[in-house]
Amino acid sequence: MLSHSLKPLRATHNLLNRVLQPACLHAVRGKKRAKFRKPLDPKHAEDLPEFEFIGKRSRPDTLLFTWGVADHGGLGRASFIRPDASKKQHHRSYVHHPHRVEFGEYHKVVDVACGYGYTVLAVNDESGPSCYGTGLNSDSQVGTHEPRSGHPLGMLINPAPIDLPVKEKSRVIKVASGRAHTVMLTDSNSVWTVGNNAYGQCGRPVIPDEDYGREAYYHHLTALEGTRVKQVECGQDTSFFLSEEGVVYSCGWGADGQTGRGHYDNEPSVGAVVGDISGEKITKISCRADCALALNDKGDVFGWGNSEYHQLNSITDEMQIHTSRKLNFPGLKKVIDVASAGTMCLLLDEDGQVYAWGFGPIGKGPNVTYSKAPTLIPPTLFGQNELTPNAKVISLACGINQFAVINSHGSLFTWGKNPGGCLGQSHTKDQCFPIRVCIGGQVLKVSCGVDHMAAMVKEIV
Predict the structure, then answer these.
(1) Cα–Cα distance measured from residue 432 to residue 425, given in angstroms and rounded to the nearest whole number
(2) Rounded to whole angstroms, how far apart are CA atoms 164 and 175?
């Protein structure tokens, strides 16, 4: 029998349960988790809570969330496209808020990349494949998948393995995705590409009339053998590779100078970017379309490619630049991160201040859609206030027309064009300044496609 003093506590507990359960909040009290989750029964995959709180002695897991347009399969949940009427499911063309993907309950995701209508995932499982893809597959950008011989799938509605012809112990650790091609880096320091190679973006000779959708061609970039690669990045039809020594290599579409190799021609072979970055130790490369930004260890920013919207205005008024140039930003402190979208750019300084320039929804409200020089976005828009005075932005990401940033509390903020609700803000209207995305955990990494996003999220402790 409960003592008189415990009865009010039990009543409060029952009331909280009735209130919280409809909100999909699930508590796990003090149970130590195994290294990997026990696989969920697929019958209950749709019942995953969007928020989950775990005990202090439990090890937080990395969850996978996706949102945006669902019709192309890039969100990785089959029921959005093929609903089960017996479970009262219905077709969903888009999902304008983050949802947990059951794939993340089966596999330990270590990297994620969103392409144009598809998503690629690198996983670190004890056994089995180390790379998966879901979504559009018109050009074998997520490998060949043939349920019936001679009938390759042009779209995957669930993540499926991308079977690289690598040694059994070699595993994919980093991925990048462009319009219709994918780049993968393994722990044995080999770089592989697959998908559309019409402009040499896969780093191999262009074959006229090649049918990319009929059979996947996995290409090993032997030109990078002996080079320790630390980052892979994809523009629209261009690929970039950053070495541990800080050298940037590129291949692919170069009509706007985005390969940075001194010409405006397409380049099917891998070679070093030239110009002002020669001899510099580059720490990050960013390009989602045809304008590229690079950052060195001193905090200097370099740019090349398309500058039709004055992304590179600080050093030239030319519309295209085919070699890297050091950008001039007087008065700014040391830059620690950069992001280059289609017509807009972001940079982050050592104090956590975010600056935007270019053309489009740059984050300064509906009346400011163009700036030749970096302008400060108020830090209060990224969670810095009286309650969290130490909150500051720590990383930047971008799509073609969107930006996404993560602050030191693991909060995600997005803004820009919003097709299919890809900003994750529970609506489909364009957003002209940053708004926090409601997501169940601390965001570790976010990747932006054209009309969808994916995030790796650490559970709340």
Answers:
(1) 13
(2) 13
CA separation for the pair 339, 447 (Å, rounded): 12
**Distance of alpha carbon 362 from alpha carbon 432, whole angstroms:** 7
**Sheet with strand 131-136: strands edge to edge:** 109-114, 118-123, 131-136, 155-161
To 10 degrees, the CA torsion angle through 224, 225, 227, 230?
A: 70
DSSP 4-39: TTTHHHHHHHHHHHHHHGGGTEEEE-SPPPPSSPPP
Tens digit of each residue's pLDDT (9 = 90 or more) over 67-125 = 999 999 999 999 999 999 888 899 999 999 999 999 999 999 999 999 999 999 999 99
Nearest to 181 by CA among 202, 207, 164: 202
Residue-wise pLDDT tens digits, 264-308: 999 999 999 999 999 999 999 999 999 999 999 999 999 999 999
CB atoms within 10 A of CB 78: 19
pTM: 0.87
What values do phi and psi take at 218, rounded to 5?
-85, 115
